Amino acid sequence: EIIPEPTKEAAAAEEKGKVKKVKEKVEKDKSKSKKKDLITNAEDRKIRKELDAADKLVDQGDYDEALKKYDALLEIFPDSPRALFGRAQAEDKVAEKWKSNEWLQTCIDTYYKVPSQKNCPKELKKQALMRAANRLTFYGKLRKAVKTMGHLNEILPGQPDILNQLGVSYLMVGNNNAAKRIFQEVLQVKPEDGFAKVHLGFILKSETKYEEAIPLLQEGIRTEEEGTIDGRFFFHLGDALYRVGEAEEAKYWYKDGADRGLFASMYQRSLYNEPKLRAQPWWTPQEGGNNFVRAVRRLEWNWEIIRDEGLANMDAEKGVFVSEEENLKNTGDWKQFTLWQRGAKQEANCNKAPETCSIISFITEATGCKRGQVKFSIMQPGTHVWPHTGPTNCRLRMHLGLVIPKNGTRLRVADDIKTWEEGKVIIFDDSFEHEVWQDADSFRLILIVDMWHPDLTDTQKKTLSPI
């Protein structure tokens, strides 16, 4: 077969592409070199080639050889900040490779020593302590990470990137007030900072200050700065917009999030997901498989026993039904009585509803569901629950109707609205947006039973973290 010679235009285009790649590599190398300049003091410049060579070994994944080179340099130049920092980075990579907590602690300890090295450049102090804080967070030592970032802020005060990470560290230990002050400080120094805006908006939204939160979240996302395009911010922006009556605007942001791959779809917006699970708003027992068929049969067969035990515990003086705690209610009165939470039996409550718990105990896909609950739910007339989604796609939710008024109770999942029937189970995927209206003239009582998604493997069920 004769292969035709490329045309002059094709050859020119190919050559132009090669030149472009060479230029890009040169620019990349220049940028990398400039960054290295910022962390190299006068003494380290004398051994710059050796340091760069050891760094290259780290980049190439030859961590053992890199460690030997850094150790050799530190033996001759014990005060070298860059050699010590390089060693910390190599240890860091080894910790990641072998998933070793021992190496992780070693690299953290080494990062901590870098700022104390003689004539350590400020930029190197910053990089070392920020990475130490990052590794501490990964290790679960959140308070020490806060302390590390606070110390760095004392060394280099007023730098937005340091302040932003300090704010995130405060959020991770649940100190929202301190985080709020930090992000406000960032915006005084740098009013256009998108990272600070989305995080401050997130905090204000959690305080139900929706009108203040919305513009911050919108403006922060629009910057598209690193750390701003996150499903959590789209999730809470849409939720805040719903709550101020801007449903269409909320849908716009949910769709944008879905288009960016942050959500499975505009309606399915759970954030803790497993891939390749069937996704549909409503399910039949047969679609869920034998476990669901058996569970529905058991619940419907015993529904009156379950109802009577739920009613017996409704006495306000007993105090077993408590108001929902996730701020999902718009109006009215909605209380719950939990029997299983995150796969753990609530013994004290089950002692008050022993027959129901005995019935449920045979439904192991529910009692072992670490990402679900089993609970009675009572909703009084005049209650509206905001459109919302559950946290995970790893479960399906069953509702057993116990006391259902004839008219006025509705459940919307995605685009479809249904109601309950006494003694009957309905099944839906609560990772899809759902909304409840209770406009009847008497209370509605149901039993909620979460079960593992039927497509999960046994290994996934064992290893998934509780939610």
Question: In words, what does this structure look like?
Answer:
The chain is α+β, with helices and mostly antiparallel strands. It contains 21 helices and 13 strands. Strands 1, 2, 4, 5, 6, 8, 11 and 13 form an eight-stranded antiparallel β-sheet that branches. It has a five-stranded antiparallel β-sheet with strand order 3-7-12-9-10. A hairpin with a 2-residue loop joins β9 and β10. α8 runs antiparallel to α9. 39% of the residues are buried. The model has no long low-confidence stretch (mean pLDDT 95).
Question: What features would you highlight for this structure?
Answer:
467 residues, alpha+beta, 14% strand
Rg calculated over all Cα atoms:
29 Å
User: pLDDT under 50 segments (min length 5)?
Assistant: none
What's the tally of helices?
21
User: What would you call the shape?
Assistant: elongated
Biggest β-sheet description: 8 strands, antiparallel
Helix content: 40-55%
Strand content: 5-15%
Structural class category: alpha+beta
What number is the mean pLDDT? 95
First CA to last CA: what distance? 63 Å
- Oligomer type: single chain
Number of strands: 13
